[in-house]
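[audit] Reproducing an earlier prediction to check determinism. Same input, same settings, fresh worker. If the tokens differ from the archived copy the diff job will pick it up downstream; this log only records the rerun itself.
[audit] input (694 residues):
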Amino acid sequence: MVREGTDYSNEGGFYDCDKIRFRSGYPEKIGGWTRLSANAFLGVARALWNWIDLDSQNNYLGVGTNLKYYIEKSGAYYDITPIRITYTHSTTPNTDNCFTTTNGSKVVLVTIASNGATANDFVTFSGVVGFAGIPAGDFNKEFQITYLTGNTFRITVATAANASTTGGGTATVAAFQINTGLAVYVPGTGWGAGPWGRGTWGSSYATTAIGSQLLLWTNDNYGADLLIAQRGGKPYYWTDTTGVNVRAKSLESLANAATQYVTTATFGGGVTTITLSNVVNLTDGCYITGTNIAAGTYVTTAYIPGSTSVPISQATGGASAGSYAISYAGSYVPTKTNQIIASAIQRFVILFGANSYSPAVPATSWDPMLVRWSDQENAYQWVPMVTNQAGEFRLSNGSFIMGSRATRQEILIWTDSCLYSMQYLGAPLVWGFNILMDNISVMSPSSMITINNVTYWMGTDKFFVYSGRVDTLSCSLRQYVFNDINKSQSFQVFAAANPGFNEVWWFYCSTNSTTIDKYVVYNYEDKVWYYGTMARTAWLSTGTRPYPMATDYNNRVLYQENGTDDASGVPTLPITAFVQSSDFDIGDGHNFAFVWRILPDVNFNGSTVDMPSVTMTVKPRQNSGAPYGIADSPTVQSADNYGVSRSYNIQQFSGQVYTRLHGRQMAFRIESVLPGVAWQLGVPRIDIRQDGKR
């Protein structure tokens, strides 16, 4: 496709299309799509990730939406959205008398102090005893809330109340999930979840195994655990090692409970030896368990990885063993990030945009230009020390980190004005940062993609490619695409790989649209561009599933390039696909031309119906700028039975079709609108004769 000039100036090329691709220079209809399963998820999906567990028994798909985080397995979607905070009837604040009902209404007002909820968040109640005519089962479930003001929000139950009550009912537990995002991007606010990392460390973490390590997914070592992070939110961790799907947990809380333990201690009262087992509940004040502690003795200092030596608050010994409180609080696991990935070879967890480390202030202010990484092979250790490789580095060129991608040799980091290369150096510097090019642009956090170790991305006004050096990617659709994008929704733009056809896709919101409705494709094998209309919100091509996967606005995962039609719903719908040439003429267009027949050349392989057909249209006009006149659109039909056979020695179709039209300039179009039709255009011929000058 060439749209950098007029259709007449591109004589001999193609000017318009939808749902086609070019293969070896010839246009053909793209593949159809089918629904992965009859199930659906909540929210607009923004990211997908696929992996297989270590025993190769389960094939998982992670689905991150603006409302939830799911794990798909065998067509079912399991909700593992992290819990942000939990209140009970014994906490402060608590859930005592938190419900208010109105007689005859199903709407219940809930008041829980400091709940931190926002509009459309989710909360799950348990342990509620029914009251005001509303059974307990109506309360003890998950609700999507309507947020009001302060500490109040509304839920809707299935049974109307038979009495008005104020401050009635008590929930044993009220578990609030992480705050939801927006379905449509709002500048300065955002809209959903960002990408997540991969890598592998040690053995899997089980809920009962304190002190074990974190296992993350890589291309080389499939694992069942996953790191996830909302853009601008905390890192979370999900595991399925127990065989039961569980909700994701805060990486910060796991670090507190699992791996920060006392290694050395100094004792008073003449005690010189002690056996320490573990430390738990570090955020609330932790405990040590020891043996051989004489009565009247106590621990004076203890060294905890991730801290300096901390004082023990009079941990007076009892008999031969016991638990003793120590006054350590706070965590140094970053509490906020824009993006989390992993270096699969060097085995670090790396955050882009994070709060910095400070021994005095565990929860420092978030810095949008800070790169921070864990210790090597230890996703819980984030304190820079001479004995580990944890650290951080603040980038200087730009105002915020837009996104990053891990490649074979380096990690690429985009700020809003610069491209950095992050390469592993080893201790003591650990990572080195070099500017590859400044004064570049990037459209969105998801507009970059790496294929065959070559990275492509969409800037704000042109396309770029990096293959060892940064270059502008020549684009015959540059003017058309960038004039068509709704720049206020630029953060919705995302790149997708379709390696089976050597393609990079970019999906975007067209002018005046707040939802994704168009795409542009670069074929890096043939070095050609084409475009079309399609509503997709996320895309993933993976070798562990039979087809590329994508999500739509109907909350479904779809298999792309599967079949010939739109089988995402019921009934199956045909896909309209066409390609249209630029205008052509006789000589320099001095004479009118008369077209009296077309000798078609078309391939119907891949069709699934008897005698598939396309229409070939010749559209005439008198001069450049004039509207097209009356076109002639004969049908080209195959003589073969494609519903039975898929192998043909000779393509059989209409040998010639007759037309009757004349014009000074003409355009040729091939289009299919019926179900079950696949086609590829060859080299058709048009019989034209001169027909006067006016």
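[audit] rerun output stored. Observation attached for the diff report: The helical segments are 136-139, 251-258, 478-482.
[audit] end
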